[in-house]
Amino acid sequence: MNGRVLNLPNAITLLRLAAVPVVGWLILHERWEAACWLFLAAAVSDGIDGLLARWLNQMTQLGAALDSIADKALGLVTLVMLTIEEAIPMWVTLAILLRDTIIVLGALSYRGMAGHLEIHPTWLGKTHMFAEFAMLALVLGGLAELLVLEDWRLPLFAIVFGIAVASGVQYVWIWSAKARRERAAAHLKHQ
Q1: pTM (2 decimals)?
Q2: Over 80: is that where the pLDDT of 26 sits?
């Protein structure tokens, strides 16, 4: 990884992070169209900063950490605010929040046990993030009257719920297997 911290990809990530409270404020004040466009711009910037980091060879550990924080913050704030506005059902929000909580607690537990942590997102985890952000964008688009979403809301929520549950179960399975291997290796080392 390139050591230069102040670069174009990181600046884009910081802009995405700065957009998070603005998206929350726009939702709070029911400025749906502005919230929708800003959310979409922030979501698209996630792909742009990653591509630029690779293309310009400007990947940094700080950039990777900020990218994850910006993604989670944007998703979490938008999800919670839309749930408060009753645009997303509580059962969908709880599934997503429970999934994320389990992943964070599992990763912290693993790090405490193994002393290190390497996170590699799975295909299902990436699918979950895409589905969650697509749901948030579609709901905002519906509230902004840019889309007609009524017939698709329940199937959309059910799909995101299912992917969140499956992804959470997959991460529990993966981290449990890693923990078992670490314990077995530690046990053999001490014999």
Answers
A1: 0.86
A2: yes
pLDDT, tens only, 113-156: 666 666 677 899 999 999 999 999 999 999 999 998 788 899 99
Nearest-angstrom CA–CA distance, 174 and 147: 38
The sign of the torsion formed by the CA atoms of 17, 18, 21, 23 equals negative
Which residue carries 């389990």 as its tokens? Answer: 102
Per the listing, tokens 């060879």 go with 57
Q: Does residue 178 contact residue 110 with C-beta atoms inside 8 Å? A: yes
Dist CA 5 CA 18 (whole Å): 18
Q: In angstroms, rounded to a whole number, what is the distance separating the alpha carbons of residues 45 and 23?
A: 14
Buried b / exposed e over 103-134, threshold 16 CB at 10 Å, is beebeeebeeebeeeeeeeeeebeebbebbbe
CA torsion, ordered 111, 113, 116, 118, to nearest 10 deg = -60
The answer to whether 97 and 75 are in contact (CB under 8 A) is: no
DSSP category for residue 73: H
Q: Using an 8 Å Cβ cutoff, are 158 and 93 in contact?
A: no
The token duo for 60 is 């940094």
